[in-house]
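Researcher: We're teaching a course module on how sequence relates to structure. For the next exercise, students receive a sequence and then see the predicted structure as tokens, so they can try to spot secondary structure elements on their own. Here is the exercise chain.
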Amino acid sequence: MGTDRYAYQSRLRRVSPLPKLALTAAALLVCLCCNSVWVGLATVLVMGVLITALGGLPARVYLHFLKIPLAFLAVGGLTILIRSYPAGAAVVAALPVGGRLWGFTAGDLRQAASLFCKALGAVGCMYFLSLNTPVTDLTMALERLHVPHLMVELMELIYRFIFVLAETAASIRVAQESRLGYQGFRRSLRSLGTLSSMVFLRAWRKAERICTALDARGYTGSLTTLAGDYAPGLWLFPLAAGVAAGQLAVLYLERMAVG
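Model: And here is the predicted structure for the students to work with:
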């Protein structure tokens, strides 16, 4: 929800979503294929510069959203980094546990760092798209790319009902708090269980009412939306090529330094 709010404030809001999608896809593909620490770091940095310079969003917004996946990436990196080795194995650092060593080697460290930075670069690419393109514009772009119509409509409906679930859960939570439903551990667990069960029931009933309203307005199985008045944004295509070339240049310099 926060990303969509900033997407409507972006200076790239009125630019066609297709060039933005092309830039994101090119940078994402190169970042994933290079499997490099420095390419991943360069990608997340370049995406931040583009979001700030082109989209007009403050750098703190980009950094704030980057904090969200960092915990998941750190946990994923640790699961790859820490392994079990027999006693006497050549490791960089380890703790003896039950006759074995739990630690990591230099190869494990390189692999974990590569995965972490590559995933972080991919997250930066997706933030460029999500912080500059509302979901409704993105679904229109997918239709123009001949993505199956059913898949696009499912995306629109799922996106719509994210807000329905959030609104329903918020109203139930306020009602529970007004009745001291979260005073104490046991009462909090009971209230949370009630909220979890009721939110889906109420959302289901609301979905049925929305379906009835669509049928009453002549719904025939497809949602028709009007395309916005977009600027072509053709200058983003050479920018996408430049970003990809910069990523490959970073990879080349890294290989030269290692070699």
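Model: If you want an answer key for the exercise: Residues 2-133+230-258 form one domain. The longest strand covers residues 93-97.
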